[in-house]
Amino acid sequence: xxxxxxxVTYNRLALLKECVxxxxxxxxxxxxxxxxxxxxxxxxxxxxKNLPASFQAETDSxxxxxxxxxxxxxxxxxxxxxxYGMKRLSATDCDWILIIDDDAxxxxxxxxxxxxxxxxxxxxxxxxxxxxxxxxxxxxxxFLKCPTFMFYxxxxxxxxxxxxxxxxxxxxxxxxxxxxxxxxxxxxxxxxFIWFDDTEYCMRFHxxxxxxxxxxxxxxxxxxPPGDAPTVSWKNYYGxxxxxxxxxxxxxxxxxxxxxxxxxHLAHIVLxxxxxxxxxxxxxxxxxxxxxxxxxxxxxxxxxxxCKDYLPGSGKRI
Length: 318
Hints:
Layout: E1 3-9, H1 13-24, E2 32-37, H2 44-59, E3 66-71, H3 77-89, E4 96-101, E5 104-106, H4 110-120, E6 125-132, E7 135-136, E8 141-146, E9 151-154, E10 164-167, E11 169-170, E12 175-178, H5 179-185, H6 197-205, E13 211-221, H7 235-250, H8 254-277, H9 282-297
Parallel strand pairs: 1-2, 1-4, 2-3, 6-13
Antiparallel strand pairs: 4-12, 5-13, 6-7, 6-12, 8-9, 8-11, 10-13
Helix pairs in contact: 6-7, 7-8, 7-9, 8-9
């Protein structure tokens, strides 16, 4: 049984170094390591050029993993980066593909614990427990609670006290997918750019196989806890836009879903505009109302990659 891993990185060299160290420290080693650099400008490219050679020098061995270092000509976002890496790894002899960003630090026995589950179950996808600053982050493993309005609900924290649980929708943070499934259903939608590409991907296969979370496989997500994240940022535009595309495609009643979306977004525009006039976080309120307006304006269109009005790092992080 061979395991491959995709690491997508962008301008976070320090995190990437730690992530690669975790990947190389697995007790169940990877046979293939694919690192996709989303056109970083912080020295990542230079460091990656020397990575395969330095690893072989440190181990004094020719039996280590095969490194596939890919530098993209432009930033294609998480969706484009993952699609690029999954295409390459699915063409190898890997049986399973682990998907992570550069801020996902997998414990040394992460793959070993998932392998135990694979040998005793028949799921097409597995995952582990995501922690942030020592606490379980339940937002990464969710149930689809309402197939009409596409409401999701995090798996409750109590479920992590059991050996494992099955669920519907996972982020790409530590998701292990069978390579044959990738070849069958294709790649994540690159046109999403960022956010909800993982949700749409799980929707494509969750009727065939739910996902098994193995609670003893632990991942340290080196990011801010959900409660500490910015109230709104440029990423929200892609989140709203892509979530709507998923609803159009997978809702049991698309017309009802779209009616709900229009009402919901209009209500948020009115509320945020009113609160901004009253002096309640006016900058954030106006910025978020603008995102809702932009999403409604493009409601009839399908996602088309990066939007010039919401470039990475642009806008306010409030």
